[in-house]
Amino acid sequence: MKTQEQAQQDRQQGRERERPRVVLGVSGGIAAYKACELLRRLTESGHDVRVVPTAASLHFIGEATWSALSGNPASTEVWESVHEVPHVRIGQSADLVVVAPATADLLAKAAHGLADDLLTNTLLTARCPVIFAPAMHTEMWEHPATQENVATLRRRGAVVIEPAVGRLTGVDTGKGRFPDPVEIFDLCRRVLARGRAALTQDLAGRRVVVTAGGTREPLDPVRYLGNRSSGKQGYALAAIAAARGARVTLIAGNTELPDPAGVDVVPVGTARQLREAVLKAAVDADAVVMAAAVADFRPAVYMTGKIKKIDGEEPEPVTLVRNPDILAELSADRLRPGQVIVGFAAETDDVLANGRAKLARKGCDLLVVNEVGEHKAFGADRNEAVILATDGTETPVPFGPKEALAETLWDLVAPRLTDRPA
């Protein structure tokens, strides 16, 4: 018979086994201090985190800080606690390894299989998804050696986040800034949610373009024609694609959402600006997902001065003209052989009938059809839809988080890319 104390220990061990095990690798860059925020979010959301810093990173954040914040010992050495074989066991038992920040040196070692400390040994023994969040100066990120190393890691299934653009060390500004820790955390959460499926990285090496938000067509300096789109569905699609290994360009119209980690964001305002950005980005894209709510019409005349209200007089009618049909244009003239085009149909009545007619009319490969209206789809965190395909199949997506719809859509897109070279 087990004693009460033994039974309690068994229950505690069971609870610990249920907690996702995350290894947070920290390499030697000034952005190491930002990893503390990532660690806090991981631990507070119930993950069991083991921090493995490099020796160089300890010049920025000490070992005691990592141990205190994680509740687990932090070590750089393969020679500590040798009886536990840490250089093998840490990687073997992990559900996720995330290296944040990842320096150019660390990326080079990982790409070439070097193992001269505990972190690089852990990367070699890990059989779970691995995420790298690079942070370095622009010149280092853009150097051909770094780009080759990143490409190698991505081919092997690792998620290498695109660094952000902004202020770097000193007075320098450019691409290489550490991504927002909140966005890295969200990416970690999505990769963990996919479990073993994340190892396949079915979009690795693919370039995808996603549009999001709503366009605004100016009437005068203070007024515009717009819609209720928040961009949440498009942003979810971009974030999920990045988590599945894709290089993502997100063309965003008038949103207030933070940039997803690892995604290149191109802001636009009007339908014509969105068209120009899409056609430019789609030249080398494997898939284009048109999730933005693009205005069908725009005012024929833009008034350079504010339209005044004059007592006793009715305003002049506003004449509208058609905007370009970007989805039909992309579908008719694929900018890359085998390109997969996905459209969205926001309908208010006869949803499926109108959706089927739009699929045939637009000529895209897949069409996501959902019912919209006040408190429906636009601005909400949850959505439901039916995804129509040109082969006649219909895939219903039940009411749930917009990330779930994004996962289902990429599940349908990925097989359509299997016969196309990355």
Automatic annotation (TrEMBL):
Region of interest called Phosphopantothenoylcysteine decarboxylase, as start-end residue ranges on this chain: 1-207
| Low complexity compositional bias, start-end | 1-11
GO BP, one annotated term: pantothenate catabolic process
Q: Where is this region: Disordered?
A: 1-20
Q: Which residues bind CTP?
A: 296, 306, 324-327, 344, 358, 362
Q: Its biological function?
A: Catalyzes two sequential steps in the biosynthesis of coenzyme A. In the first step cysteine is conjugated to 4'-phosphopantothenate to form 4-phosphopantothenoylcysteine. In the second step the latter compound is decarboxylated to form 4'-phosphopantotheine. Catalyzes two steps in the biosynthesis of coenzyme A. In the first step cysteine is conjugated to 4'-phosphopantothenate to form 4-phosphopantothenoylcysteine, in the latter compound is decarboxylated to form 4'-phosphopantotheine.
Which intervals of the chain are annotated as region Phosphopantothenate--cysteine ligase? 208-422
How cofactor binds (record note)?
A: Binds 1 FMN per subunit.
* Domain called Flavoprotein: residue spans: 21-186
Which family does this protein fall into? Answer: In the C-terminal section; belongs to the PPC synthetase family.
E.C. number? 4.1.1.36, 6.3.2.5
Gene name of the record: coaBC
Extract the InterPro entries matched here: CoaB-like_sf, CoaBC, DNA/pantothenate-metab_flavo_C, Flavin_trans-like, Flavoprotein
A GO cellular component annotation here is: phosphopantothenoylcysteine decarboxylase complex
According to the UniProt entry, its GO molecular function terms are: FMN binding; metal ion binding; phosphopantothenate--cysteine ligase activity; phosphopantothenoylcysteine decarboxylase activity
What this protein is called in its record is: Coenzyme A biosynthesis bifunctional protein CoaBC
Protein source organism: Streptomyces gilvosporeus
- Which pathway, metabolic or otherwise, does it act in? Cofactor biosynthesis; coenzyme A biosynthesis; CoA from (R)-pantothenate: step 2/5; Cofactor biosynthesis; coenzyme A biosynthesis; CoA from (R)-pantothenate: step 3/5
Which cofactor(s) does the record list?
FMN; Mg(2+)
